[in-house]
Structures are given as C-alpha cells and as structure tokens.
Design a protein that fits this description.
Layout (H helix, E strand, L loop, with lengths): L3 H14 L3 E6 L11 H16 L4 E6 L5 E6 L5 H7 L12 E2 L2
Antiparallel strand pairs: 1-3, 2-3, 2-4
Helix pairs in contact: 1-2
C-alpha cells in the first residue's frame, strides 16, 4: 500500500528541487495472460498514487525489453525532441516512448 502522506513530502522536494524518476516495477512474464500479476497490480497502484500527488505532472514509459518494468517521471511533460537531442546518441533510444499519465 502506498502512503500518500510520504508521497506528499516527496512532492515538496521534487517540486522545489527537480524531478523524481521511479521504477514502478512491472508485470513480468504474466503480462501475456488475462490475470494481472502482483507486479502489475503494484505498478498500477504506484502510478495511480503518484498521479494523485503529481496531478498533470507525471509521465510513464513501459520497458518491454528491460524486464517489463514501467518508469515514471515527475514534472511537466518533457519536450521529447529537445530532450532526445540533448542526450548522447546511446541514450536517445526510447525517449519517444514517454507518455503523460492522465
């Protein structure tokens, strides 16, 4: 269970000092089945809690090739093209996979 109070304290520091990026876990191999795995349930709960604390300020990226993890980043939705251009070529892969959380 995610504690919203703790996330609210984190929100303060992120808002005044920068961004937070979180590996929210993932669905692992069970992603191919209709039944949600514990990992998928935890990932969805984590993203939902973060979306409540960071309304309109959360993006996520699903990493199918990296163990089915989902990353979340706080802050305004980044300018994907500008962000990609600011990174070395080796780190540009997947930048366009970031999507806002509604």
């Amino acid at each position: 269970m995610v504690c919203y109070g703790n996330l609210s304290m984190v929100f303060y520091f992120a808002w005044t000092e920068g961004r937070i990026i979180v590996n929210c876990g993932g669905a692992r191999a069970e992603r191919e089945t209709e039944i949600k795995s514990d990992g998928q349930l935890y990932m969805e709960a984590t993203i939902a809690a973060m979306a409540k604390v960071f309304p309109g300020q959360l993006s996520k990226r699903y990493l199918a090739r990296k163990g089915f993890n989902t990353l979340a980043i706080t802050g305004p939705v980044p300018d994907i093209e500008g962000w990609a251009q600011s990174l070395p070529e080796a780190l540009q892969d997947g930048i366009s996979d970031w999507v806002p959380v509604a």
